Amino acid sequence: MEKLRIAIQKSGRLSEKSLELLKEAGISLNNGSRKLRSVAQSFPLEVIYLRDDDIPQYVEDGVAHIGIVGENEFAEKECAVDLVERLGYSRCRLSIAIPKSEDYGGLEDMNGRRIATSYPVILTKYLGEHGVKADVHVLSGSVELAPSIGVSDAIFDIVSSGSTLISNGLKEVETIMRSEAVVIANRNMEEGVKSILANLLFRIRSVKAASNNKYILLNAPNEKLDQIIQTIPGMKSPTVMPLAEEGWSSVHSVLSEKEFWGVIDRLRELGAQGILVIPIEKMIV
Ligand code: ATP
Ligand code: MG
Questions:
Q1: CA distance 185 to 54
Q2: Is the CB of 178 under 6 A from ligand 1?
Q3: Could you identify the atom of ligand 1 that is nearest to the CA of residue 13?
Q4: Phi, psi dihedrals of residue 18, rounded to the nearest 5°
Q5: How far is the CA of 55 from the centre of ligand 2 (A)?
Q6: What is the Å distance from ligand 2's center to 248 Cα?
Q7: Is the C-beta atom of 90 inside 6 A of ligand 1?
Q8: Residue 2 backbone phi and psi in degrees, to 5
Q9: What number does CATH give the domain 213-279?
Q10: At the topology level of CATH, where does 92-179 sit?
Q11: Contact 173, 77 (CB under 8 A)
Q12: Nearest CA to ligand 1 atom 2
């Protein structure tokens, strides 16, 4: 039977979350990332484990049908693959940083400077678009050390908390791109494989929707019911049931994580009581 082949990072910042996502999508693999490949038990899927740098090319070549990589790798490799889903984890940004003692007056300060990076394509493109001519120096790792050992004047690298920059005496001066884990896909898949992918993406979206939403239950005074319902519209509309106590109703709905605290404050102002918020396991969207 046909199988969808997915490439996942063998070990690193994307591995654990990606395997976790497959698990939440109901796909169990017989072991972790120790092997080079594993076959799912309950879904027509095969996983191959690779270095993240190699994944875009393997997907372009069709060795894997799809892959999970950071958007930064997708942008850097410029492979002929499609970005089919954003996954929301392994968020980071790619920024230019300079020694903290130096002043920064804008991107044009980079003219004639040497910038060390593992992402020459993204950086060169950005500098070109802004008419800045710098000397882009490619390093495959430990880029943050380059200025202190005299290899470069600045760096362009991944930043998440910024603590690596600080501990190397650097400061972030320009953010060039934001990145998160994404699913990339081969452009010439057979119909059978495409439909397995559609099913997998449906499951992934249900997992994502569930983690972005909460189930909320509360008791509402009937005279404020209309306003409370407008505050928590839910998937279609909230469930409203009368309480045994006259003049009160129980309201059940779904609330997105993003607007969570604002909505809770508003509900309390409207006199809602006994507010319960419960995680959702899966949400079929
Ligand atoms: P490999 O050995 O597979 O080549 P790597 O060292 O190139 O691994 P990792 O450091 O594991 O890569 O990072 C993988 C991806 O995770 C990066 O391309 C980026 O998208 C994202 N990432 C990197 N650093 C962070 C971070 N500090 N926080 C969140 N996401 C990050
Ligand atoms: Mg890598």
A1: 14
A2: no
A3: 11
A4: -70, -40
A5: 9
A6: 58
A7: yes
A8: -65, 145
A9: 3.30.70.120
A10: D-Maltodextrin-Binding Protein; domain 2 (3.40.190)
A11: no
A12: 51
Output the pLDDT for position 31: 67
Residues 189-233 have pLDDT tens digits of 999 999 999 999 999 999 999 999 999 999 999 999 999 999 998
Residues of the chain with CATH 3.40.190.10: 4-89+180-210, 92-179
pLDDT recorded at residue 158:
97
Domain covering 4-89+180-210 in this structure, CATH number? 3.40.190.10
User: For residue 257, what pLDDT is reported?
Assistant: 87
- Residue whose CB lies within 8 A of the most ligand 1 atoms, among 92, 166, 184, for a mutation test: 92
Give yes or no for residue 144 CB within 6 A of ligand 1. no
Give the largest Cα separation in the chain, rounded: 77
**CATH 3.30.70.120 domain locations along the chain:** 213-279
Beta bridge partners of 137: 116
How close is the Cα of 257 to the center of ligand 1, in Å?
A: 26
Give tens-digit pLDDT for 166-181.
Answer: 999 999 999 999 999 9
Helix (H, G, I), strand (E, B) or coil at 145: helix
Give residue 117's pLDDT: 98
Structure token pair of residue 256: 């997105």
Residue 206: enclosing H or E segment and its boundaries? Answer: helix 191-212
Residues of the chain with pLDDT under 50: none
Atom of ligand 1 nearest to the CA of 53: 4
9 lines ligand 1 (CB under 6 A): yes
Residue type, 237: S
